[in-house]
Amino acid sequence: MIKRDKYLNQLLEARENGFPKVITGIRRCGKSFLLKEIYKGYLLDEGVDYSHIHVIELDDDRNIEYRDPIKLGEYVRGICTDSEMHFVFVDEIQKVYTIKNPNLTDGKHVPAKKKDTDTVSFVDVVLGLSREKNIDLYVTGSNSKMLSSDIVTEFRDKATNINLAPLSFEEFYAYVGGYETEALYEYMQYGGMPLAVLKKDDDKKEYLKGLFETTYFRDILERNRLKRGEELEELCNIISSLTGELLNSEKIANTFLSVRKSKIDKSTIENYIGYFIDAFILREARRFDIKGRKEIGALRKYYFADTGLRNARLNFAFPDEGQMLENIVYNELRYNGYSVNVGTFDTVEKNKAGKSVRKNNEVDFYATKGIRSYYIQVTADISNETTKEREIRPYILLNDQIQKVIVVNKPIKETRDERGFTIIGIMDFLLRFIKGE
Protein backbone atom coordinates (compact mmCIF):
# COMPACT_ATOMS: atom_id res chain seq x y z
CA MET A 1 0.00 0.00 0.00
CA ILE A 2 1.23 3.51 -0.82
CA LYS A 3 1.65 5.38 2.45
CA ARG A 4 0.38 8.94 2.91
CA ASP A 5 1.65 9.50 6.44
CA LYS A 6 1.63 13.30 6.27
CA TYR A 7 -2.10 13.37 5.55
CA LEU A 8 -2.90 10.52 7.92
CA ASN A 9 -1.25 12.53 10.68
CA GLN A 10 -3.31 15.59 9.74
CA LEU A 11 -6.46 13.50 10.02
CA LEU A 12 -5.34 12.18 13.39
CA GLU A 13 -4.59 15.68 14.67
CA ALA A 14 -8.08 16.81 13.58
CA ARG A 15 -9.86 13.71 14.90
CA GLU A 16 -12.93 14.52 16.96
CA ASN A 17 -12.12 18.24 16.99
CA GLY A 18 -15.75 19.28 16.53
CA PHE A 19 -15.26 20.44 12.95
CA PRO A 20 -15.95 18.63 9.68
CA LYS A 21 -12.80 17.50 7.90
CA VAL A 22 -13.01 18.62 4.27
CA ILE A 23 -10.47 16.86 2.04
CA THR A 24 -9.71 18.67 -1.20
CA GLY A 25 -7.15 18.28 -3.95
CA ILE A 26 -6.64 17.65 -7.63
CA ARG A 27 -8.86 14.93 -9.05
CA ARG A 28 -7.44 11.39 -8.86
CA CYS A 29 -4.78 12.20 -6.25
CA GLY A 30 -6.14 9.67 -3.75
CA LYS A 31 -8.62 11.52 -1.53
CA SER A 32 -11.07 8.63 -1.32
CA PHE A 33 -8.27 6.09 -0.81
CA LEU A 34 -6.87 8.16 2.05
CA LEU A 35 -10.18 8.00 3.89
CA LYS A 36 -11.61 4.61 2.96
CA GLU A 37 -8.42 2.57 3.08
CA ILE A 38 -5.66 4.29 5.04
CA TYR A 39 -7.62 6.16 7.72
CA LYS A 40 -10.33 3.54 8.08
CA GLY A 41 -7.66 0.85 8.47
CA TYR A 42 -5.95 2.91 11.16
CA LEU A 43 -9.19 3.36 13.11
CA LEU A 44 -9.92 -0.36 12.97
CA ASP A 45 -6.40 -1.18 14.15
CA GLU A 46 -6.92 1.24 17.03
CA GLY A 47 -9.97 -0.69 18.14
CA VAL A 48 -12.82 1.39 16.71
CA ASP A 49 -15.77 -0.92 16.12
CA TYR A 50 -16.47 -1.59 12.44
CA SER A 51 -20.15 -0.72 12.98
CA HIS A 52 -19.13 2.81 14.02
CA ILE A 53 -17.37 3.62 10.75
CA HIS A 54 -19.80 4.60 7.99
CA VAL A 55 -18.82 5.12 4.36
CA ILE A 56 -21.38 6.84 2.12
CA GLU A 57 -20.36 6.95 -1.54
CA LEU A 58 -22.59 9.46 -3.27
CA ASP A 59 -21.36 8.47 -6.73
CA ASP A 60 -22.91 5.02 -6.16
CA ASP A 61 -26.40 4.68 -7.70
CA ARG A 62 -27.56 2.87 -4.57
CA ASN A 63 -27.10 6.10 -2.63
CA ILE A 64 -28.71 8.57 -5.02
CA GLU A 65 -31.52 9.44 -2.60
CA TYR A 66 -28.91 10.85 -0.22
CA ARG A 67 -27.91 13.45 -2.77
CA ASP A 68 -30.84 15.36 -1.28
CA PRO A 69 -29.21 17.32 1.56
CA ILE A 70 -32.04 16.85 4.05
CA LYS A 71 -32.31 13.11 3.34
CA LEU A 72 -28.55 12.77 3.75
CA GLY A 73 -28.69 14.46 7.14
CA GLU A 74 -31.61 12.30 8.25
CA TYR A 75 -29.89 9.11 7.08
CA VAL A 76 -26.61 9.84 8.88
CA ARG A 77 -28.36 10.74 12.13
CA GLY A 78 -30.43 7.58 11.79
CA ILE A 79 -27.37 5.31 11.69
CA CYS A 80 -25.56 7.11 14.51
CA THR A 81 -28.03 6.50 17.29
CA ASP A 82 -25.95 5.50 20.30
CA SER A 83 -23.73 7.79 22.33
CA GLU A 84 -20.45 6.28 21.09
CA MET A 85 -18.42 8.24 18.53
CA HIS A 86 -19.32 7.46 14.92
CA PHE A 87 -16.86 8.17 12.12
CA VAL A 88 -18.77 9.17 8.98
CA PHE A 89 -17.04 9.38 5.58
CA VAL A 90 -19.07 11.04 2.82
CA ASP A 91 -17.36 10.61 -0.53
CA GLU A 92 -18.10 12.98 -3.44
CA ILE A 93 -20.09 15.44 -1.32
CA GLN A 94 -20.52 17.71 -4.37
CA LYS A 95 -23.14 15.23 -5.62
CA VAL A 96 -25.51 16.72 -3.02
CA TYR A 97 -27.70 19.13 -4.92
CA THR A 98 -29.07 22.39 -3.56
CA ILE A 99 -32.79 22.63 -2.81
CA LYS A 100 -35.11 25.44 -1.91
CA ASN A 101 -35.96 25.83 1.75
CA PRO A 102 -38.79 23.26 2.17
CA ASN A 103 -40.59 25.68 4.49
CA LEU A 104 -41.23 27.81 1.40
CA THR A 105 -42.40 24.92 -0.81
CA ASP A 106 -45.02 23.20 1.39
CA GLY A 107 -42.42 20.69 2.56
CA LYS A 108 -41.47 19.59 -0.95
CA HIS A 109 -37.79 19.20 -1.86
CA VAL A 110 -37.48 21.37 -4.97
CA PRO A 111 -34.09 21.82 -6.70
CA ALA A 112 -32.96 25.42 -6.33
CA LYS A 113 -32.20 27.74 -9.19
CA LYS A 114 -29.19 30.01 -9.29
CA LYS A 115 -31.29 33.05 -8.37
CA ASP A 116 -32.76 31.42 -5.24
CA THR A 117 -31.33 32.71 -1.98
CA ASP A 118 -33.08 30.73 0.76
CA THR A 119 -31.65 27.29 0.06
CA VAL A 120 -30.27 24.13 1.68
CA SER A 121 -26.96 22.84 0.28
CA PHE A 122 -24.21 20.36 1.09
CA VAL A 123 -22.61 23.06 3.23
CA ASP A 124 -25.64 23.14 5.52
CA VAL A 125 -25.74 19.37 5.95
CA VAL A 126 -21.98 19.16 6.56
CA LEU A 127 -22.06 21.88 9.22
CA GLY A 128 -25.23 20.48 10.77
CA LEU A 129 -23.90 16.93 11.09
CA SER A 130 -20.59 18.15 12.49
CA ARG A 131 -22.44 19.69 15.43
CA GLU A 132 -23.69 16.28 16.56
CA LYS A 133 -21.61 15.23 19.57
CA ASN A 134 -21.41 11.58 18.47
CA ILE A 135 -20.46 12.25 14.83
CA ASP A 136 -16.94 12.88 13.53
CA LEU A 137 -17.49 13.87 9.91
CA TYR A 138 -15.12 13.59 6.94
CA VAL A 139 -16.02 14.59 3.39
CA THR A 140 -14.28 14.58 0.03
CA GLY A 141 -15.29 16.43 -3.10
CA SER A 142 -14.30 16.74 -6.72
CA ASN A 143 -13.04 19.95 -8.23
CA SER A 144 -15.84 20.68 -10.71
CA LYS A 145 -18.03 22.05 -7.92
CA MET A 146 -15.89 22.04 -4.82
CA LEU A 147 -12.77 24.07 -5.41
CA SER A 148 -10.26 25.67 -3.09
CA SER A 149 -11.94 29.06 -3.37
CA ASP A 150 -15.31 27.50 -2.53
CA ILE A 151 -13.97 25.90 0.62
CA VAL A 152 -12.58 29.19 1.87
CA THR A 153 -15.81 31.04 1.07
CA GLU A 154 -18.36 28.47 2.24
CA PHE A 155 -16.74 27.05 5.36
CA ARG A 156 -14.43 29.86 6.45
CA ASP A 157 -13.30 28.92 9.97
CA LYS A 158 -15.98 26.26 10.44
CA ALA A 159 -14.09 23.29 8.95
CA THR A 160 -10.67 21.69 8.91
CA ASN A 161 -9.40 21.73 5.33
CA ILE A 162 -6.87 19.05 4.38
CA ASN A 163 -5.45 19.63 0.92
CA LEU A 164 -4.12 16.45 -0.66
CA ALA A 165 -1.52 16.55 -3.44
CA PRO A 166 -0.18 13.84 -5.75
CA LEU A 167 2.59 11.71 -4.25
CA SER A 168 5.58 13.76 -3.21
CA PHE A 169 8.94 12.37 -4.23
CA GLU A 170 9.44 11.23 -0.64
CA GLU A 171 6.19 9.23 -0.75
CA PHE A 172 6.95 7.94 -4.24
CA TYR A 173 10.43 6.70 -3.36
CA ALA A 174 9.24 5.11 -0.13
CA TYR A 175 6.89 3.03 -2.27
CA VAL A 176 9.00 2.13 -5.34
CA GLY A 177 12.44 1.93 -3.67
CA GLY A 178 15.36 0.78 -5.82
CA TYR A 179 18.19 2.90 -7.18
CA GLU A 180 17.77 6.55 -6.32
CA THR A 181 18.73 7.85 -9.77
CA GLU A 182 16.31 5.55 -11.57
CA ALA A 183 13.50 6.47 -9.18
CA LEU A 184 14.13 10.18 -9.66
CA TYR A 185 14.06 9.97 -13.46
CA GLU A 186 10.87 7.94 -13.38
CA TYR A 187 9.31 10.53 -11.07
CA MET A 188 10.52 13.40 -13.25
CA GLN A 189 8.93 11.80 -16.28
CA TYR A 190 5.67 10.40 -14.91
CA GLY A 191 5.14 12.15 -11.59
CA GLY A 192 3.21 10.89 -8.60
CA MET A 193 -0.46 10.48 -9.52
CA PRO A 194 -1.21 7.30 -7.54
CA LEU A 195 -2.85 5.30 -10.32
CA ALA A 196 -0.13 6.30 -12.77
CA VAL A 197 2.54 5.04 -10.36
CA LEU A 198 0.92 1.60 -10.40
CA LYS A 199 0.87 1.32 -14.22
CA LYS A 200 3.49 0.33 -16.80
CA ASP A 201 5.29 3.12 -18.70
CA ASP A 202 3.15 3.17 -21.86
CA ASP A 203 -0.01 2.88 -19.78
CA LYS A 204 1.21 5.73 -17.58
CA LYS A 205 1.42 8.03 -20.61
CA GLU A 206 -2.06 7.24 -21.85
CA TYR A 207 -3.55 7.55 -18.39
CA LEU A 208 -1.97 10.94 -17.70
CA LYS A 209 -2.91 12.34 -21.11
CA GLY A 210 -6.43 11.04 -20.67
CA LEU A 211 -6.87 12.75 -17.30
CA PHE A 212 -6.91 16.14 -18.99
CA GLU A 213 -9.37 15.16 -21.69
CA THR A 214 -11.79 13.10 -19.61
CA THR A 215 -11.57 14.86 -16.27
CA TYR A 216 -9.71 18.14 -15.81
CA PHE A 217 -10.76 20.12 -18.87
CA ARG A 218 -14.31 18.82 -18.62
CA ASP A 219 -14.46 19.89 -14.96
CA ILE A 220 -13.24 23.40 -15.75
CA LEU A 221 -15.60 23.80 -18.71
CA GLU A 222 -18.56 22.63 -16.61
CA ARG A 223 -17.63 24.65 -13.57
CA ASN A 224 -17.14 27.91 -15.43
CA ARG A 225 -19.77 27.41 -18.16
CA LEU A 226 -17.26 27.60 -20.98
CA LYS A 227 -18.53 26.51 -24.39
CA ARG A 228 -15.21 25.82 -26.06
CA GLY A 229 -12.04 24.29 -24.68
CA GLU A 230 -9.50 24.89 -27.47
CA GLU A 231 -8.06 28.06 -25.95
CA LEU A 232 -7.99 26.47 -22.49
CA GLU A 233 -6.04 23.48 -23.82
CA GLU A 234 -3.58 25.61 -25.78
CA LEU A 235 -2.95 27.83 -22.77
CA CYS A 236 -2.20 24.72 -20.70
CA ASN A 237 0.27 23.57 -23.37
CA ILE A 238 2.00 26.95 -23.39
CA ILE A 239 2.39 27.04 -19.61
CA SER A 240 3.71 23.47 -19.75
CA SER A 241 6.46 24.54 -22.12
CA LEU A 242 7.22 27.64 -20.02
CA THR A 243 7.24 25.97 -16.60
CA GLY A 244 9.44 27.92 -14.22
CA GLU A 245 9.68 31.04 -16.38
CA LEU A 246 8.51 34.42 -15.17
CA LEU A 247 5.21 35.10 -16.90
CA ASN A 248 2.44 37.64 -17.04
CA SER A 249 -0.71 37.80 -19.14
CA GLU A 250 0.96 39.96 -21.81
CA LYS A 251 3.82 37.52 -22.36
CA ILE A 252 1.43 34.58 -22.50
CA ALA A 253 -0.81 36.45 -24.97
CA ASN A 254 2.20 37.08 -27.22
CA THR A 255 3.22 33.42 -27.05
CA PHE A 256 -0.35 32.38 -27.79
CA LEU A 257 -0.38 34.61 -30.85
CA SER A 258 2.87 33.15 -32.17
CA VAL A 259 1.69 29.56 -31.58
CA ARG A 260 -2.00 29.74 -32.54
CA LYS A 261 -1.83 32.76 -34.86
CA SER A 262 -4.82 34.11 -32.99
CA LYS A 263 -5.37 36.62 -30.22
CA ILE A 264 -6.54 36.01 -26.70
CA ASP A 265 -7.14 38.93 -24.36
CA LYS A 266 -5.28 39.31 -21.08
CA SER A 267 -8.34 39.05 -18.86
CA THR A 268 -9.26 35.70 -20.44
CA ILE A 269 -5.74 34.43 -19.80
CA GLU A 270 -5.91 35.53 -16.16
CA ASN A 271 -9.31 33.86 -15.76
CA TYR A 272 -8.11 30.60 -17.29
CA ILE A 273 -5.01 30.50 -15.11
CA GLY A 274 -7.27 31.09 -12.11
CA TYR A 275 -9.37 28.10 -13.17
CA PHE A 276 -6.26 25.88 -13.31
CA ILE A 277 -5.13 27.08 -9.88
CA ASP A 278 -8.58 26.54 -8.36
CA ALA A 279 -8.59 23.00 -9.78
CA PHE A 280 -5.23 22.39 -8.06
CA ILE A 281 -3.54 21.72 -11.43
CA LEU A 282 -1.24 24.74 -11.26
CA ARG A 283 0.50 26.52 -8.41
CA GLU A 284 2.01 29.97 -8.59
CA ALA A 285 5.18 31.37 -7.07
CA ARG A 286 5.14 35.14 -6.71
CA ARG A 287 8.14 37.41 -6.82
CA PHE A 288 9.54 38.55 -3.49
CA ASP A 289 11.79 41.58 -3.19
CA ILE A 290 14.56 40.18 -1.02
CA LYS A 291 15.84 43.59 0.03
CA GLY A 292 12.46 45.32 0.27
CA ARG A 293 10.97 42.27 2.08
CA LYS A 294 7.67 42.27 0.17
CA GLU A 295 5.90 40.58 -2.74
CA ILE A 296 6.03 42.65 -5.90
CA GLY A 297 4.81 42.89 -9.48
CA ALA A 298 2.52 40.93 -11.75
CA LEU A 299 5.15 38.43 -12.94
CA ARG A 300 4.69 34.88 -11.67
CA LYS A 301 6.19 31.45 -12.09
CA TYR A 302 3.77 28.58 -12.58
CA TYR A 303 4.40 24.99 -11.60
CA PHE A 304 2.31 21.89 -12.12
CA ALA A 305 1.03 19.94 -9.13
CA ASP A 306 2.54 16.91 -10.83
CA THR A 307 5.41 16.68 -13.34
CA GLY A 308 3.73 13.75 -15.10
CA LEU A 309 0.72 15.94 -15.85
CA ARG A 310 3.00 18.68 -17.12
CA ASN A 311 4.82 16.26 -19.42
CA ALA A 312 1.54 14.78 -20.65
CA ARG A 313 0.64 18.15 -22.16
CA LEU A 314 3.87 18.00 -24.17
CA ASN A 315 3.24 14.38 -25.19
CA PHE A 316 6.34 13.38 -23.19
CA ALA A 317 8.53 14.80 -25.96
CA PHE A 318 12.00 16.14 -25.08
CA PRO A 319 11.25 17.06 -21.46
CA ASP A 320 13.49 19.79 -20.12
CA GLU A 321 15.43 18.34 -17.19
CA GLY A 322 16.04 21.71 -15.55
CA GLN A 323 12.36 22.66 -15.67
CA MET A 324 11.29 19.34 -14.17
CA LEU A 325 13.88 19.53 -11.39
CA GLU A 326 12.73 23.03 -10.53
CA ASN A 327 9.08 21.89 -10.52
CA ILE A 328 9.93 18.97 -8.23
CA VAL A 329 11.90 21.15 -5.81
CA TYR A 330 9.05 23.66 -5.65
CA ASN A 331 6.45 20.95 -4.96
CA GLU A 332 8.63 19.24 -2.36
CA LEU A 333 9.23 22.52 -0.53
CA ARG A 334 5.47 23.09 -0.41
CA TYR A 335 4.87 19.50 0.71
CA ASN A 336 7.29 20.05 3.60
CA GLY A 337 5.51 23.19 4.74
CA TYR A 338 7.67 25.96 3.29
CA SER A 339 6.41 29.26 1.96
CA VAL A 340 8.02 29.65 -1.45
CA ASN A 341 8.62 32.76 -3.56
CA VAL A 342 10.81 33.71 -6.48
CA GLY A 343 13.60 35.82 -4.99
CA THR A 344 14.39 39.06 -6.77
CA PHE A 345 16.53 42.12 -6.07
CA ASP A 346 17.99 45.08 -7.95
CA THR A 347 21.61 46.16 -8.22
CA VAL A 348 23.24 49.16 -9.83
CA GLU A 349 26.09 48.16 -12.15
CA LYS A 350 28.28 49.67 -14.85
CA ASN A 351 27.49 48.75 -18.45
CA LYS A 352 30.11 48.45 -21.21
CA ALA A 353 29.94 52.18 -21.77
CA GLY A 354 30.70 52.81 -18.10
CA LYS A 355 27.21 54.10 -17.38
CA SER A 356 25.42 53.09 -14.19
CA VAL A 357 22.34 50.97 -14.92
CA ARG A 358 19.85 49.20 -12.72
CA LYS A 359 19.76 45.43 -13.16
CA ASN A 360 17.26 42.91 -11.82
CA ASN A 361 18.61 39.68 -10.36
CA GLU A 362 16.71 36.50 -9.62
CA VAL A 363 17.02 33.54 -7.28
CA ASP A 364 14.93 30.49 -8.20
CA PHE A 365 13.37 30.21 -4.76
CA TYR A 366 13.28 32.05 -1.48
CA ALA A 367 11.91 29.43 0.94
CA THR A 368 10.96 30.00 4.57
CA LYS A 369 9.62 27.76 7.32
CA GLY A 370 9.64 28.91 10.91
CA ILE A 371 13.15 30.16 11.68
CA ARG A 372 14.65 28.49 8.57
CA SER A 373 15.23 30.54 5.43
CA TYR A 374 17.03 29.50 2.24
CA TYR A 375 17.91 30.91 -1.13
CA ILE A 376 17.79 28.03 -3.59
CA GLN A 377 19.12 27.72 -7.13
CA VAL A 378 18.22 24.56 -9.07
CA THR A 379 20.32 23.33 -11.99
CA ALA A 380 20.90 20.09 -13.86
CA ASP A 381 24.69 20.49 -13.73
CA ILE A 382 27.35 22.99 -12.65
CA SER A 383 30.41 21.21 -14.03
CA ASN A 384 30.46 23.85 -16.76
CA GLU A 385 32.18 26.93 -15.35
CA THR A 386 29.90 29.35 -17.20
CA THR A 387 26.81 27.66 -15.79
CA LYS A 388 28.25 27.67 -12.29
CA GLU A 389 29.09 31.37 -12.45
CA ARG A 390 25.56 32.16 -13.65
CA GLU A 391 24.00 30.23 -10.78
CA ILE A 392 26.17 31.70 -8.02
CA ARG A 393 26.25 35.29 -9.32
CA PRO A 394 23.09 36.35 -7.39
CA TYR A 395 24.56 34.83 -4.23
CA ILE A 396 27.76 36.84 -4.59
CA LEU A 397 25.70 40.02 -4.91
CA LEU A 398 23.59 39.21 -1.85
CA ASN A 399 25.36 40.27 1.31
CA ASP A 400 23.20 38.69 4.01
CA GLN A 401 23.25 35.73 6.37
CA ILE A 402 20.59 33.58 4.72
CA GLN A 403 21.90 30.15 3.68
CA LYS A 404 22.54 29.96 -0.06
CA VAL A 405 21.93 26.57 -1.66
CA ILE A 406 22.64 25.17 -5.12
CA VAL A 407 20.73 21.96 -5.89
CA VAL A 408 22.26 19.89 -8.69
CA ASN A 409 21.16 16.68 -10.38
CA LYS A 410 24.18 14.74 -9.18
CA PRO A 411 24.52 11.96 -6.56
CA ILE A 412 26.51 14.09 -4.14
CA LYS A 413 26.10 14.84 -0.45
CA GLU A 414 25.96 18.31 1.05
CA THR A 415 29.19 20.26 0.75
CA ARG A 416 30.38 23.86 0.75
CA ASP A 417 32.33 25.66 -1.95
CA GLU A 418 35.12 28.14 -1.34
CA ARG A 419 32.61 30.98 -0.86
CA GLY A 420 30.59 29.11 1.72
CA PHE A 421 27.66 28.34 -0.57
CA THR A 422 25.96 24.98 -0.03
CA ILE A 423 26.13 22.58 -2.98
CA ILE A 424 23.94 19.52 -2.66
CA GLY A 425 22.67 16.67 -4.85
CA ILE A 426 18.97 16.54 -5.58
CA MET A 427 18.37 13.30 -3.65
CA ASP A 428 20.14 14.49 -0.50
CA PHE A 429 18.20 17.75 -0.74
CA LEU A 430 14.79 16.13 -1.21
CA LEU A 431 15.09 13.31 1.30
CA ARG A 432 17.15 14.92 4.07
CA PHE A 433 18.16 18.56 3.82
CA ILE A 434 14.67 19.90 3.16
CA LYS A 435 13.55 18.36 6.46
CA GLY A 436 16.19 20.22 8.44
CA GLU A 437 18.06 17.02 9.20
TrEMBL record:
Residues 218-378 form the DUF4143 domain. It holds the Pfam family AAA_14. Signal peptide: none annotated. InterPro entries: AAA_14, DUF4143, P-loop_NTPase. Residues 20-172 form the AAA domain. This is ATPase. It comes from Butyrivibrio hungatei.
